[in-house]
Amino acid sequence: LSIMVWLTCVVAAVVVAASGATSARAATAGRAMFGDPRDHRSAGQRALSKEEVATVKREYKRGVDAYGRNDAQTAVDAFRTVVRLAPALPDAHLNLGVSLERLQRYDDAHAAYANGVDLLPRSVTLLTALCTLENLRRAPPPQSTRELCRRAVRLAPDDPRTHHNVAVAAINAFEFDEGLKHMRRAAELDPSSSVYAAGIITALSRAGGCEEMRSAKWDGIGVSVHNEESRVIRSRATADSICNINDTRAYGLYDHGNERHLAELAVHQTLKNVPPCQNRFSLIKRYRATNVYAGLDEPVKVLRYENVCMEGDSGVVYSERRCEIYYNDHLATQKVAEHFSGLGAAQRTIHVTRPAMSVMQQRLVNYYHWVVEAAAKLAYLKNHVFPKLRKSAGGDSEMMPVYVLPDLDMARETVKLFQLNEDDILYYSTTDSVPPGADGPSSGKQRYLFDELYVIDWRNHAAASADVWNVHVPPPVAVRYIRTELRRAVLGGSGYEADDGGDTKLKVMFASREDAGARKMPNERDLVAAVRVAVAEFPNSSFDVYMGKGKTIEQQVRSYADADIVVGPHGAALTNMLYMRPGGGVVLLPMRPLVDQCYVRLPERLGLHQHIVDDYGAYYYANFPYADEAVVERTVAAVRAIARRVLDGRR
What we know:
It contains 23 helices and 14 strands. The protein is α/β, with parallel strands linked by helices. A hairpin with a 6-residue loop joins strand 3 (316-318) and strand 4 (325-327).
């Protein structure tokens, strides 16, 4: 909390003496602390009575004290009074916003900062606070956020915080050159900050600067000074995992970085409510749990835990007694560390006494991760775990099992498709925003204490250290399982009645990324036109260009249920190959380097023909280059070859 020791001077700067004359000392203090004193007039600052001056001092101190003892609501009440009486005081607006953030009332915090900026348009402190919050909440940020951040740079070109905010906004908007430029400038201005050093690594990894990172020229970007600080270690791990296929160092770096982070938090005494075992967890270690239903198809297992916690939507389950941890994403430990970092900690604990079943899935808003991973786990829980737990409850409502699912549209739609009872669902929040007066399981960050928790696990621990991206890809049996479950839920019957293996129809779908933020093709329409012509060579054929943004799961299942071939660049839309007719094929325009192989593994698991277009690709965070004539020809040739194989297989 930015509380200044010069409170008395600040108050003096906005107080006009009873005689109506402003003291010379007050004017000097105003210039020093506020920049342009004209901001005071724009803020509507009026003369205060002696009683009001005393109130400002008292309420400011009350706010500081309340925040210090973690009573954020009292701090909010106090700082609101200060803002009302002394609107020209930047720190009053700042501290009001920070206190509201402590309460996870981010909309209100945004309003507090924005109101301060309107009143004090030259306050770099308030501009920085507002820009920081918008960067955290809006990705990619709108142009207005980026201009807000640039405005702060113009006012304070030698303040590293302003350059850092511009860099973050630019990187989140896929403008990596601008992001790297300003992140480097922030590090130049403050070479002691590991935040900016880690930011350079992140910017390089986003901008495709793999060669620079591989050359280990860390001294040139100030990283060597901070190479044992957790955020730098974790940034290097991310860079390794993005730039190097099957990099064996990345998982070790993730482990080391998170251990360091937790140790750093312990030093700063922000881990008061965290089990002491947390500084010993390892990302790739198998933690003990009871495999209660070993009869499932290997390697799918149901794990049972007793008396464990889940910190918000972190994807990590931990136990103070045995230090057991379950995680389900390579970012999970980073997420839980954020929850443990004090300000991000859960506001309250919800004790779930009924047997709980969770999909425990990170990156929940991503269509691929929800459908292929989370929905598959939910299907196993529905068919294999829930019936046994319900039977064990013997009619006791207190022991009836409950699903623990993210409060997302995709999750709610899947619940309906699987015909689950809403009374058996506990939705947990995946957002930091808490509406005023909100209550219940979906109101902001929570800590969940489970007496009994069941999770589905299929991870290949032996391969984890060598395959950072793909350790959580479901095994073939699980992929085929969710394909059947979703086709059955949407199409009825077995899900395959409409598939006549003897027909000569051919349907080709192009999974477009024109509406995506990255990995777009500048001349996608040229490639689409060429593929359309090639498909038309086959009798009884059809060709559609499909964009899945805004479509429901059911709509996408129906659109692809009779498809034979899917063509497209690496991206979530390719998930829909899951619903294709058996025996079809996929033509993939890949990412390069091909570190994330989920859309390579998926057709393998589905038994589909596959062709990866050679000598072409997009970096993970970038767009594809122009597809020249050779690329178009190779893609079209692959479509023709797979089409012949598909049709020959039906004869």
